[in-house]
Design brief:
Length: 152
């Protein structure tokens, strides 16, 4: 297979379902890009428990599962991805390196604020929305830490 060194496509994010035989494992396939003005989707990518295989025209890499918001990507690049359902990527890619998981968990623990909650890392529309999102983010962080035995 020959891949053009510079992929191009529509600005923004598009996704579509996969064929029926893959739907148990793959949530969707997608394309995305951020134009030179940083729009339309320069917002951070929020964690969803999934892992993606991504091609950006230069390299193939795996993203996720993340413990917090991640940058959307570089301006001007066009991305093509396949999103695995939670827990399914290791069936195809092999198990995650335990040191990577531990590093993500360490970073999650370090992000805890003095009041015991976890901050949101994106711009909120209002203080009420920020408080609600912060509560959701705190519950998500606690679930992750409990699932990996970091808290009781």
């Amino acid at each position: 297979m020959v891949v053009a060194p510079e992929l191009t496509g529509p600005t923004g994010y598009l996704e579509w379902t996969t064929q029926a035989s893959l739907r148990r494992y793959v949530a969707c396939c997608w394309t995305g890009s951020i134009d030179a003005c940083g729009s339309p989707s320069a917002e951070p990518v929020l964690p969803d428990g999934c892992m993606d295989i991504i091609w950006d025209g230069r390299r193939l890499f795996v993203a996720g599962p993340d413990t917090g918001p991640a940058p959307a990507g570089e301006e001007g690049l066009f991305y093509v991805g396949m999103r695995f359902r939670p827990g399914m990527a290791p069936l195809f890619l092999g198990p995650l390196d335990p040191s990577v998981v531990e590093a993500h968990l360490d970073a999650l623990e370090a992000a805890q604020a003095e009041d015991g909650g976890w901050p949101i890392t994106w711009e909120s529309l209002s203080s009420a929305a920020e408080a609600e999102c912060r509560g959701v983010e705190t519950l998500r962080a606690l679930r992750v830490l409990r699932a990996f035995g970091r808290i009781g």
